Amino acid sequence: MRAVPPNRYIVFSFIAVAGCVIDLATKSWMFGHLGWPNTPVWWIIPEVFGFRTSENTGALFGFGQGWVWVFSALSVVAAVGIVVWLFYAGAARDWLLTIALGCVTAGISGNLYDRFGLHGLKWYPGHPDHLPGEPVYAVRDWIHVMIGTYAWPTFNIADSLLVCGAILLVWHALLYGDPGKSRNGQASAAKREG
Questions:
Q1: C-alpha to C-alpha distance for 162 and 40, rounded to whole angstroms
Q2: pTM reported for the whole predicted model
Q3: Which residues fall within 8 angstroms of residue 136, CB to CB, at 6 or more apart?
Q4: Which are the catalytic amino acids?
């Protein structure tokens, strides 16, 4: 097995760190600017696209509310698995996988920061499930999109990076599912590695 080229470490690290920093900076700015909780929508395109703050104690799109520690544990396992697969198993020789998994790692890191409560938010008076002043172990969301009359679940940059990374992984699987099937597949795999 050939070693992973050094530039893959740089690209992966840059995407993972820059994506996480942008996510955390935008969350902090939006929550500082708009406040929290139950903020009105700050419309950029009226009734289509805007910003409002909310918390998510579940996963992507609000799935699994209240399972914050389960999703935190799964996130840590996924992040470790990504690094092992890319740099120990050698998947980082493929440019598309390196970029896709850099996006996924950035998304995992940004939301994991929030799930650990490192943002410092405290629950507000009147919340039905938490006492005022308890630490908030939830992901900060702020991007609000309407699809007709349907309000898409509020999301953030980390969620967007996770979705983009997943799309790139599906694209990779469709394009290069089994590069050993033909000489063309082998040539494509070698080209991607170079």
A1: 26
A2: 0.84
A3: 55, 117, 119, 121, 122, 123, 130
A4: 141, 159
**Burial of 191 from C-beta contacts in 10 A (0-12 / 13-18 / 19+):** exposed
- Count of Cβ atoms closer than 10 Å to residue 120 Cβ: 8
* 35 torsion bin: left (phi>0), alpha (psi -120 to 50), beta (else): left
Indicate the number of domains in the chain: 1
Strand partners, 140: 55
- Quote the domain boundaries for residue 165: 6-193
**Is 1 among the domain residues?**
no
CA torsion sign, 158 to 42 to 150 to 68?
positive
The dihedrals phi and psi of 49, each to the nearest 5 degrees, come to: -145, 130
| In-domain check, residue 64 | yes
- Report pLDDT digits (tens) over 31-81: 999 998 878 999 999 999 999 999 987 655 555 556 677 778 888 999 999
Residue 111 resides in a domain: yes
